[in-house]
Design a protein that fits this description.
There is one protein chain. This protein has 2 helices and 4 strands. It has helices spanning about 25-40, 70-85; strands spanning about 5-10, 15-25, 45-50, 65. The longest helix has 16 residues, at about 70-85.
C-alpha cells in the first residue's frame, strides 16, 4: 500500500531541519541522505505520514531543532563540494 509521506532532513550538527516535500516513493531522497552520511555529514532523514497529525509542513516541529528553509539545498551543495574534492577536481 502506497501513501504520501513528508520528507524531512535534519542537520544534527547545527540542530536545524527542513521539510523538503511530499512523495509516495522516498528512494531517491533516502539514497541521497545515505550518501551524505557516508561522506561524514551529520544528517538524518525523517519520513512522516501525511495525515491528520501532520496536515501541513508548518505543523511539523522537532524539539531542540529550529527550522531552516533551504537546508536540503545547502546540504546537497556541500555534499557536491565534498564529492568534487574526492574526484580530484579541486586541489
Amino acid at each position: 500500500m502506497n501513501f504520501k509521506q513528508w520528507l524531512i532532513i535534519k542537520d544534527d550538527s547545527k540542530r536545524t531541519f527542513d521539510v523538503v516535500g511530499q512523495v509516495m516513493d522516498d528512494n531517491a531522497f533516502s539514497n541521497k541522505v545515505i550518501a551524505m552520511q557516508r561522506e561524514g555529514m551529520s544528517v538524518t532523514s525523517v519520513l512522516l505520514p501525511v495525515g491528520s497529525r501532520n496536515p501541513s509542513k508548518e505543523s511539523i516541529k522537532f524539539t531542540g531543532f529550529t527550522k531552516e528553509e533551504g537546508l536540503y539545498e545547502r546540504l546537497c551543495k556541500h555534499h557536491r563540494d565534498i564529492m568534487m574534492k574526492h574526484d580530484g577536481h579541486w586541489e
